[in-house]
Amino acid sequence: MRRTPGSERVPGARLLGAARRLRPRLPRTRRGRRRAVRGVMAACVLALAPATWLHVVADARVRTVEDVPARQVAVVFGAGLWDGKPSPYLADRLRTAAALYRDGRVKVVLVTGDNSRAEYDEPDAMRAFLVGQGVPDDRIVSDFAGFDTWDSCVRAKRIFGVDRAVLVSQGFHIRRAIALCRAAGIDAYGVGVAAKHDATWCYGATREVFAAGKAALDALFEPDPHFLGPRERGVDDALAAASRRPPLRPR
Q1: How many helices (H) and strands (E) does the chain have?
Q2: pLDDT, tens digit (0-9, with 9 covering 90-100), for 74-127
Q3: Which of 29, 165, 206, 228 is the most exposed place for a label (fewest CB within 10 A)?
Q4: pTM for this structure?
């Protein structure tokens, strides 16, 4: 079939016309522009409201290892495994929890993480690391169904009977952990673990902006975690062991 002159430009012209039709039209009147600006501002406020709520609820409860109030239980949240061992971020959380134990700030460490697959076991890896840091095995309690922060907080309260706790996580996550544990009924303070501002930190900090929205919904509607089950005595037994054999303080 013989192509007529200029016919090769027709598809491009059609695409250009379609693009013009899809281009958003700005309001032409001053009143319309004001409404558009107000709409954008309202959307920004709604987007930032959950993050603002986290800071209001949790800022005063973020402490250091040296000044956090003593509690019987520390809760350490999972943060991934590398070749079956704690990731660098998780290892830093566990070292901080071990320091809290050695300083006598806590008596028991509850490790909560993901064990949804047989080949992936955060709590057992966390336990082994803590034992290597000098925390006795009978002072460590494992929660194998801490699939996210809300689940971990609710299960700490309803399954393990934790009423007061020191939470351990990186600084970009600790406020969300405090806010959610308080919403779940735990009187919580948190230790924000320092972290190098690398690609992982940037990802985590960015993710928190979006996770704050889910956190606000969890706190508002209080959904059940993925798994509940009967009350477990792991924390009670560990505290009983601590009362029988107090930890040795470093000299």
Answers
A1: 8, 8
A2: 999 999 999 999 999 999 999 999 999 999 999 999 999 999 888 899 999 999
A3: 29
A4: 0.79
Give me the helix-helix angle, 30-58 and 171-183, nearest 10°. 80
pLDDT at 76: 98
- Answer left, alpha or beta for residue 184, where phi above 0 means left and psi between -120 and 50 means alpha: alpha
Separation of alpha carbons 17 and 154, rounded Å: 55
Half-sphere exposure (CA, 13 Å, Cβ side) for 105?
Answer: 23
Instruction: Output the six-digit token pair for 31.
Output: 């009143």
What residue type is 43 in one-letter code? A
Long-range contacts of 9-12 (CB under 8 A, 24+ apart): none
Sort residue 223 into left (φ over 0), alpha (ψ -120 to 50) or beta: beta
Tens of pLDDT, residues 64-83: 999 999 999 999 999 999 99
Please state, in angstroms and rounded to a whole number, the distance separating the CA atoms of residues 244 and 241. 5
State the Cα–Cα distance between residues 216 and 101, nearest whole angstrom. Answer: 31
- Tens of pLDDT, residue by residue over 192-201, are 998 777 777 6
CA dist 198 → 39, 194, 212 (Å): 35, 12, 21
For residues 215 and 149, is the Cβ–Cβ distance under 8 A? yes
Given the DSSP bridges, would you call strands 108-112 and 140-143 parallel, antiparallel or unpaired?
parallel
Report the C-alpha gap between 11 and 46 in whole angstroms: 42
**Cβ–Cβ < 8 Å for 82, 227:** no
- Environment class of residue 234 by beta-carbon count within 10 Å: exposed (0-12), middle (13-18) or buried (19+)? middle
Q: Which residues of the chain have pLDDT under 70?
A: 1-27, 30-49, 201, 203-205, 246-251
